Amino acid sequence: MKKILVINGPNLNLLGEREPGIYGDDTYETLCSKIMDKAENMEIKCEIFQSNHEGAIIDKLHSARLSCDGVVLNAGAFTHYSYAVRDAIAAIRIPVVEVHISNVFARDEFRKNSVIAPVCKGSISGFGLASYFMAMDALVNYNDEI
Ligand code: DQA
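Above: inputs. Below: predicted complex with DQA.
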């Protein structure tokens, strides 16, 4: 795996300000720089994309199929209801790992269902920003396990 794409969905640009008791104090910029450091350590190329718009995320997934080897996706609330994001993941042949900063199973009832999980390679939830690093590791080092 040479290049991965990290996609962040709605409201993740407000990390650090947004519900810090749930998502922590680190800003979105801090998250991005930690992801880039991790990628450098892993000796892989990495692009980061954030959008609050469903269609933009779908367009990015489509273009990733031609330019990247795998995707780490925090779809935010789209996780729980976007069949369009789900279909985009199913349409591309590269592996997608679902990530969540918070433990979505320990929160509201509606967060316990992920409509994207069945079409993702796997899911990581509840480890704060480390969820992203674990997902990068899974994508790059364990994608061929099954
Ligand atoms: C989230 C969890 C989602 O339920 C929520 O809508 C988010 C963030 C997380 O990273 O914990 O926006 O994906």
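Residues 72 and 136 are 7 Å apart (CA to CA).
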